[in-house]
Amino acid sequence: xxxxxxxxxxxxxxxxxxxxxxxxxxxxxxxxxxxxxxxxxxxxxxxxxxxxxxxxxxxxxxxxxxxxxxxxxxxxxxxxxxxxxxxxxxxxxxxxxxxxxxxxxxxxxxxxxxxxxxxxxxxxxxxxxxxxxxxxxxxxxxxxxxxxxxxxxxxxxxxxxxxxxxxxxxxxxxxxxxxxxxxxxxxxxxxxxxxxxxxxxxxxxxxxxxxxxxxxxxxxxxxxxxxxxxxxxxxxxxxxxxxxxxxxxxxxxxxxxxxxxxxxxxxxxxxxxxxxxxxxxxxxxxxxxxxxxxxxxxxxxxxxxxxxxxxxxxxxxxxxxxxxxxxxxxxxxxxxxxxxxxxxxxxxxxxxxxxxxxxxxxxxxxxxxxxxxxxxxxxxxxxxxxxxxxxxxxxxxxxxxxxxxxxxxxxxxxxxxxxxxxxxxxxxxxxxxxxxxxxxxxxxxxxxxxxxxxxxxxxxxxxxxxxxxxxxxxxxxxxxxxxxxxxxxxxxxxxxxxxxxxxxxxxxxxxxxxxxxxxxxxxxxxxxxxxxxxxxxxxxxxxxxxxxxxxxxxxxxxxxxxxxxxxxxxxxxxxxxxxxxxxxxxxxxxxxxxxxxxxxxxxxxxxxxxxxxxxxxxxxxxxxxxxxxxxxxxxxxxxxxxxxxxxxxxxxxxxxxxxxxxxxxxxxxxxxxxxxxxxxxxxxxxxxxxxxxxxxxxxxxxxxxxxxxxxxxxxxxxxxxxxxxxxxxxxxxxxxxxxxxxxxxxxxxxxxxxxxxxxxxxxxxxxxxxxxxxxxxxxxxxxxxxxxxxxxxxxxxxxxxxxxxxxxxxxxxxxxxxxxxxxxxxxxxxxxxxxxxxxxxxxxxxxxxxxxxxxxxxxxxxxxxxxxxxxxxxxxxxxxxxxxxxxxxxxxxxxxxxxxxxxxxxxxxxxxxxxxxxxxxxxxxxxxxxxxxxxxxxxxxxxxxxxxxxxxxxxxxxxxxxxxxxxxxxxxxxxxxxxxxxxxxxxxxxxxxxxxxxxxxxxxxxxxxxxxxxxxxxxxxxxxxxxxxxxxxxxxxxxxxxxxxxxxxxxxxxxxxxxxxxxxxxxxxxxxxxxxxxxxxxxxxxxxxxxxxxxxxxxxxxxxxxxxxxxxxxxxxxxxxxxxxxxxxxxxxxxxxxxxxxxxxxxxxxxxxxxxxx
Length: 1158
Description:
Blueprint: H1 24-34, H2 38-46, E1 63-64, E2 76-79, E3 82-89, E4 95-103, E5 108-116, E6 119-120, E7 138-143, E8 178-185, E9 200-209, E10 234-235, H3 239-248, E11 250-252, E12 270-273, H4 284-296, H5 311-321, E13 324-329, E14 332-337, E15 344-348, E16 358-360, H6 363-367, E17 371-378, E18 384-387, E19 391-392, H7 394-400, E20 409-414, H8 420-434, E21 439-445, E22 455-458, E23 469-478, E24 483-490, H9 495-499, E25 527-532, E26 543-548, E27 557-563, E28 571-576, E29 582-585, E30 593-602, E31 605-606, E32 610-616, H10 627-640, H11 647-660, E33 675-687, E34 690-702, E35 707-718, E36 722-734, H12 746-749, E37 756-759, E38 764-768, H13 772-775, E39 781-785, E40 794-798, E41 802-803, E42 809-818, E43 822-830, E44 836-844, E45 847-848, E46 860-867, E47 874-882, E48 890-901, E49 921-933, E50 938-949, E51 955-962, E52 965-971, E53 974-977, E54 981-984, E55 989-994, E56 997-1002, E57 1013-1019, E58 1034-1037, E59 1043-1045, E60 1053-1056, E61 1060-1066, E62 1069-1072, E63 1076-1081, E64 1087-1096, E65 1101-1102, E66 1106-1109, E67 1114-1118, ...
Parallel strand pairs: 1-3, 15-22, 17-20, 42-45, 61-70
Antiparallel strand pairs: 2-9, 3-4, 4-8, 5-6, 5-9, 7-8, 9-10, 11-12, 13-14, 16-21, 17-18, 17-19, 21-24, 22-23, 23-24, 25-26, 26-29, 27-28, 27-30, 30-31, 30-32, 33-34, 34-35, 35-36, 36-49, 37-40, 38-39, 39-48, 40-47, 41-47, 42-46, 42-48, 43-44, 43-47, 49-50, 50-51, 51-52, 53-54, 54-55, 55-56, ...
Helix pairs in contact: 3-4, 3-5
């Protein structure tokens, strides 16, 4: 009996299709599982990623599985197909037949060839083999998978006794399936097939696809191709068109809502594969742009995915075949091709940034590769995955080995790439992408309107990224602050000619440009210095006032100093934001000569000083109209010094107290440094005709972070002609003494530049918080020397500069952990210009193998003492990672750097305290003084109290009585009288609040938005600089008509019932907000209202954008509505109003409409 083969498959009597969810739910599910955030997308752009799909070689496996998933043939592919039915039949079971499917969601373009084992077989019109050993014994019938198929695949005609495949007939048309019937006829000698079934490999041109480039209804498209009519689709071998159609989904069956009937229409039929995202959820323009680049590169794509594979992995494989990666644009499924140079669309200057630009250059050193061993799906090798030669470059290998060629390789399978040349080009590009080396995020102004895939160029001379071209990987809008947060990576155009064989060598890796640290000094006209004499009655203390602007637009601070000569020494009067326009200088010696120096600062860089002077400080004159007081003061100053300056007395008191004190230092490093002291000094002296008694007492307490002092001084002096009694009391608290700026690295993590890194080794990297394993407990700075660093290679972290004095002794240290490294802590000393003039090694050490979690218990404290040389004005810490040589790498994290003055005999390291960005100080000084002069018959009595804290001007109350007169003086930024009246010293205005009304009167310069108001009263809440005649009730002006009165009304203005409004719905459909009412108050009718969109989603519309109201109250009532599918929409609208008198005003309304998942 010629029964063929003991077949291992059984008959399958039902044809099944895998059906999955489609539409918005499918998109939501896909996005939930596959969204790539900004950080992850940056990583994808830097890695040679292997999508996890089945190897294309599995196409050769001939499976018989009734539950096998649908497969989809894209481009020219070859495979055995999936058996869905088989049977042996006919006389003596001489026939065996197989029904198999090559692709769902047909039709395919064509059946190209058939190979049985290793021989190509040809067939006549009836389907009978006409060549090879299988002639007249093999039959093949095929259908393209039209929708619908007009008939089923019949058994071959002319079989012996009219035999036909059982359990097969007209009810099995397999519409939409590219299918075949493969029939073998064994002869009576069983010599035709010798007991086995030849494996059949079918060569086909696969599915038709929707291509927007051939759709004249798509912007820029031309042709009849339409997404809702699959009969107009085109055959494609373009990977991005395949990826687009995978995103749309593959569909079968009669579509709903069409006459005449259509089949396989997306969203109207049954989805049998792919993602099934709606058009609103797909970025068509991104795919079209990438598809054009793909064609320009003369590439092809061949793929045979199935419905059970990860939809995201299949999409990634299509994109991999085109040199792209997955991306999202405005929440839509999109792609980012990296297979051709891009034009920089905008130049980013400092004005375009809205905050700190963060960038990272370390990951590339750890992740980049220099060699790929590519595999591709080769038709010439029987549709097997075939490896081609390694793709590499000596330039890359020597760069990674510091001059010695080293190989960092990775195998990569390009499952959907059918050609060797294309695979090698893609591999070269992927290597180059991993070596870009710079990634980061930048907060930019919203008007730049950058999209994923755009390129831009930094043009910020003072920044290390100056001149760097970058590609946008992600855009995260921040509507609240009207900015966009852009994730970017460096982009080198030179890698593309190398990858395509047009250049002999790849370009060098992008490098950060040294920052331009030059800070332009003040211009001669920037600042004007005005002496400030005392006001009549003592209401103003003498000093200098600087007025002007900072001309250097890149400055981050302005510094004002004063000193006795043109070269100093300098004492700081101000350091603060460059927006200041008035700077006072107080604390001057009346009548003394001073020079004033102004410097500009940008981060940790400083300009040269511009020196003004000399200038003479005004004399202190509490009452210029009382000459007797003047003479008394002169006599007293000549005999006893300035009675108003208590600093010398306090200095003497503190010196004596320190001489009496005793401090208890910590016994070991890491513990709190505490000391407490109570001291007393009493002295009485009778010397000739003079008696003097002094009593000094003091209380001091200190911890590692704070100091507090109380000093009392009483002094009595009497001689033949003069009696003087004085009492001084001072209470002072100060912040900690660790002078290292940003010792907890919070500022560095936020983008500050107090800490800086430098190295003499090319493969050095640094940063904060390498990962959570190293920094779980606190911020940790680290340095990393990779690639067998030679002996002497080093990575240095330097702190910001701290003030210092020559011959003074200082302590410094940090907590270090070392991995094959030599850890060191140094101190560097700088001169007045911050040029390093000397350095000293404080200590060497660190916890070997430690540093885990940033836990101090896993570090060793390393520190010591050093004395500053002559000429020192500044100092800073240096924490060094030093290579001993002969190791593969060195790694050193550190925490808790500190530095403070040390005593001459101190040998034990003191405890750590967090450093402050500036010294914080608070003090209260009270002085009482009484003097009689018998010789001149004069007397004076004074009392003064001064409160002073960091960050503000001092507050002073002074009372003086003398033979010629008396005065009481108040000095403060604001002086309050009662509970609702205040005098503001900066603006010379009196301000009184009664209920919801504020009354303002100027005793100095006019105020208001137009600087023309002398008096103004109106509603509370309007800033002094914003007050006008329009928004006040009444007042007086310096310009005509010199007064105004709006008491009959509060003036024209526009108000809204909502500044923010939202709405939501569950599932797709339309949704609208509640009503918004905008009213023009104080208007003259009629009033015209216009609602307009300022920014955001164009799909949100106002229900009534224009309206004219002729009757008071003049109002416009409207709402906002839109249609939602699967995304939240946001927009910002404005509403303007104009009345008959020409008054105009507007309001801003933020609209947010939420989509709730079902």
